[in-house]
## 1
Amino acid sequence: MSDETGRTIFLDGEEVPFDIGETIFQVAERYRKDIPTLCYDDRLEAFGGCRLCVVEIEGARTPVASCTTMAEPGMRITTKSGSLEMHRRVLLEMVVSENREVDVDELSGYASQEMKNLVDRYSARTGRFAGDKSGVSRPDDPNPFILRDYENCISCYRCVRVCAEQEGDYAISIMNRGFETQITTEFGGLLKDSSCTFCGQCIQTCPTGALGDLKALRHVEVEEPIEKTRSVCTYCGVGCALDIMTKGDQVVGIQPAMDGPANEGALCVKGQFAFDFVHHPDRLKTPFIRDDHGQLVPATWDQALDKAAAGLLEAVNEHGRHSLYAIASGRAPNEAGFTMQKFVRAGLGTSYIDNCSRA
Amino acid sequence: MTPTNDELIAEAMTEEAPLLPLLHRIHERDGYLSEEALRSVSKGLRIPIADLFGTITFYHHFARDPGGFEAPRVCTGPICCLKGAHDLVAQLDGATGMPCSGRCDEPIPVIRGSQTFVGLSASQLTLGDTPVPPAKVGDYEECVFANIRSSDRKTIEGYRQTGGYEGLEKAVTSMSPQELTEMIDQSGLAGRGGAGFPTGRKWKAVADAKGGPKTVVCNADEGEPGCFKDRALMDHDPHAVLEGMALACYATGSPRAFLYLRYEYPETEHLLVNAISEAEAAGVIGDDVFGTGIKIKIYLRRGAGAYICGEETSLLNSLEGSHPFPRNRPPYPVTHGYEGTPTAVNNVETLASVPPIVLRGPDWYRNLGLGNHSGTKVISLSGDVARPGNYEVPIGLPLSTLIDEWAGGVPNNRSVQAVTMAGLSGGFLAGDDLDVTLDEPSIRAKGSFLGAGGIMVFDDSRDMVEISHMAMEFFAEESCGKCFPCRIGTQRLTERLAGKAGPEDLEQWLDEVSDLNKTMKETSACGLGQAAPLITESLLKYFPQAVQTHVIGE
Ligand SMILES: Cc1cc2nc3c(=O)[nH]c(=O)nc-3n(C[C@H](O)[C@H](O)[C@H](O)COP(=O)(O)O)c2cc1C
Ligand code: SF4
Ligand code: SF4
Ligand code: SF4
Ligand code: FES
């Protein structure tokens, strides 16, 4: 963003500085130009498919895609004009015409409202360009996590690209060409037979809800509004930030936090989908202590801690400090892991401490 | 003995650009690409299986069911359709259609395995043979066709009888690469593959670019409907193409060149393989070109059926074995081409023009054109003319001279209703605009372009809406699917031209079609989507009455 270099472009008449390697879109975004996009996800390499981000460059024969065009000194760029807005609306009318529906539930996924919002912003529900619909849905895929509703797919390939570029899984790809284009796994099979890890990244980047979060969608009928609470995944020490979606008292789903410092929008299958334990009837809600008959009975924390301390002391006294071995949970954050080893080393006096992700 | 998957893969791994040749060997060996074979290829070449599967399905000709390789494919391009191609599909067992396969000057072509047959009905099919360009008519001197009609031209001895490979020898022994590039620049030679970029400037850009090894690619994909000139050049003058490639290598400092040949020219592949080994044996290409120590290796690679693979960046992706979407430009291939190296992609005709220029000088070539136009252009002329075929015209020749005097005019006492330009990509010219000279500025002034030089002629009995429909259907089938305006737009225009969808009200119909035209032209990511709407645009411009009848009836 340094302008000591004198490197500037003109954005809608205003001279603004830019960095080498920045695209026109990135500069424009910094200046809050609100250029519409559908194939763009700032974590992925710019693709240039949707063409909504076109801008005019003085002297260029036709508009260019701002997401794939590098800013160059002296460029004079128009981000909004009658003809650009006309193209954007026509492009949106086109994608509306190929899909079964525009409105999908917010529970579908993080980006699921992108297309709908743009369609409304550009009043593109005109019914123009009617014709064949594209995409074949896969209701035959019995996996419990990912809805594969390609009748709502607009072939932006964000799913394919996130799977390859972010996850390195290469589970899905693009089959056929043109209007027949179809998102597929190897040989058109089920996700479970592919290299998919069910991380859900493809769901969260899909701008139409063609890929949907099946677990969250179980709660569509619950009347209450969705509330999002920022939290940290409890499964491992990475500490992925996520938003817990609730309706009333009910956890209905998880979405990755795109601004999570450790994960930048990534999650794995556990953080993404394994939250059913929260409301599970078997879930322990208090400590238990085994009574003299070997039966587990509910107890308070003080009782439980006293009991545990006594047991540990007894073991040390009878068998020596090295008779104990502690394993810190991989689900514990670094701070808890640190406290654990402190307790074991200073409190119990042994160095027999390890972590489950190593043990 | 039939080689196993593992043997074929081991062999491929020692080669440049191994994926396509490996797939072709398996395709021919098994008659299709089985799941098992593809899994081995995925492992061997370390390509994720989902990607490999997706990429295979992109190409028209890779069969995924047993026997598919041998199943007949009948050309259902616009000209062949007028000759009854759909009847022929119905007559032949297991036959399917394929886009224009570059033989519009012959009866309907049918490809079976590695052989091409031609005929108008199932009982008449005979092995196809590329017609020699018709005898020269006018007084104008030719460049690439000057010696092509002599009989043993295909052999290296025949080629050398009229100065073949002397241009290359002269260049590598007595000229610097800069001098060669300068000479080509001065000749005014510009790309003959469609975009018309000055060849000398392209070579200079590659020579000046950082990084290497540099690469030359001869674009022999010739997928544009109504274009069959590159096939004539390769089939009758293969060494001229190889010599042009070698000269491009010398000028740009490239030790290697690829010739990317379209799938639909199986016989040409064998011919070129022979020509390359002849030339290597003669020491004119290979590890020690004319004893100078210069190395120029030429590799032949074959596509698998995709018009977009003629677009240079899609071609490069195809060569590299990845999904053949066009790349975003800039950067251009001259700096970031094959495997990221500076690459000169040139059309067959462009390259075949180079040896005569080197021998006879840039002024000679420049003066071949009429008025202030430089050089010549091969026009593939087809459709309703007495003598369809490839004609090398001086740039600037009137269209009417070509059609009426050279090609014998329109048969059956009919007259020209419309012609296409640039194969199909330039849309139609009709009415007063038929009074035009064959040069880029004149044709562009009429909203079209000369491009690769395919011209289809339609007489006054033809249904222009139906022809537009066939044209748009081609673009829809060949749209790669990368960008929205082309992927959806070609489909919507096809449906409207077929009368299958679209408003019943004329004004609304016209609004929809012209909005699609505009947005496709201005926002599509590559030349396919930008050019396809020229069909509908020119249809609306020249034939509003026919459009009205199509939409609301008489
Ligand atoms: C859709 C599309 C198809 C193309 N097909 C071909 C082709 O078959 N052969 C060819 O030489 N150029 C083709 N081109 C042009 C190439 O991109 C490129 O400009 C050309 O090969 C450069 O060679 P030249 O400068 O010698 O013409 C095509 C372009 C587009 C946009
Ligand atoms: S869930 Fe993850 S691994 Fe599976 S297809 Fe989606 S992005 Fe790829
Ligand atoms: S499924 Fe969603 S993310 Fe994937 S291509 Fe279709 S619309 Fe884009
Ligand atoms: S214009 Fe058509 S062929 Fe070109 S990139 Fe877009 S979809 Fe592909
Ligand atoms: S955001 Fe640039 S083309 Fe889609």
## 2
Amino acid sequence: MHELSVCQGLLDQVARVAADHGALGVKHIVVRIGPLSGVVPELLQQAFPLARAGTMAADAALMIEELPVRVHCDACGADTEAKPNRLLCGECGDWHTQLISGDELLLASVELLKEEAHV
Amino acid sequence: MCDTCGCNVTHGNAHLAEKKNAQGHSAVSVLTDLLSANDRQAAHNRRHFDGHGVFVVNLMSAPGAGKTLLLEATIDALKDELRIAVIEGDLETENDAARIRAKGVPAHQIVTGTACHLDAHMVHDALHHMTLDGLDILFIENVGNLVCPASFDLGQHRNVTLLSVTEGDDKPAKYPVMFRTADLMLLTKTDLLPVLDDFDPARAEGALRALANPAPVLRLSAKKRDGLEAWSDWLRAQLARIRASDPAIRAEIPGRPPRFRPVNPKPATQGV
Ligand SMILES: Nc1nc2c(ncn2[C@@H]2O[C@H](COP(=O)(O)OP(=O)(O)OP(=O)(O)O)[C@@H](O)[C@H]2O)c(=O)[nH]1
Ligand SMILES: [Mg+2]
Ligand SMILES: [Zn+2]
Ligand SMILES: [Zn+2]
Ligand SMILES: [Zn+2]
């Protein structure tokens, strides 16, 4: 599994954001993950303490928000919730759908330490 | 992937991007794709491939589904017609590359060690050990694994996912991330179908459709050299399409569904 390397990528981006804002440290990191991203939230949470050691985010907490799977139906136009392995329209059952949410792997926000009033 | 123009925001997740963090003024909303470093490298690889007019296919499957034997049979069928090269990805050994070289086709082996997938950087490194000049098709045989390889764009134009009939026809339902990325599903080892009464090709195709994937499904036995004509036709047709499209369109042809569809670009999301 590649959750550790995803974590390292995450911390690289966090470090960049922190540097851009002249922060001294990182308190809180929020990521958003859809089930179809291929990343398992529990494994990411487990990998995080290993990856953060010795970085600017050494004391940071990781919060993972899991996103629902949603599809848009090309046949009837409905937007409905779906299961990761059953991306059928919840209204009419057609399989001609487009994923509109559920494959995200996003760094959503970072809470920085010792920041001046506004960024 | 662009960090600042908001192209990560779709109408499915836009409300999340706009959500204000009530906890205080020091929170920075970023919304960047955590695989963006890989995706940037993959886009760079794709420019190399497009610059040489090479059609690149990423072969993925469970271990032992028949990727290398498929390549050997494909080379036998097409080597007088098309110039082929292969990048092999395995945890250990040069065996698969050696099998390809024995067919008279250039092959570079990537030994990944502990990594159970190829990534765009490994493929770029491999390009330094081979030439793309004059090639028609470059096959990248990924590490046998139905999990991670699906998450890493390599710069390929098409994903081909093999499902051998010895594995069970519900594999697409068990590995939706992988099978959703397939541009073609190849049912392999079909010579064994008569002795396997529990694998129903129609059910396998149904499981793929349940992932909203319209990809064609072909049946093939590399061992008996059966079904190779339809597979060769698919390769020829894709090669022609890739070559005919202009570079801008080509760059947009995803080897997998893009994680972030550029719907409705929004102003910067960096900094709240
Ligand atoms: N009966 C039958 N066996 C096959 C067929 N294709 C491959 N095999 C056998 O399946 C085994 C694995 O084949 P490979 O081509 O090495 O599979 P692979 O997907 O490259 O394996 P890894 O690279 O290790 O993931 C070998 O023993 C092959 O002879 C086929 O069409 N029919
Ligand atoms: Mg192989
Ligand atoms: Zn519908
Ligand atoms: Zn390069
Ligand atoms: Zn992996």
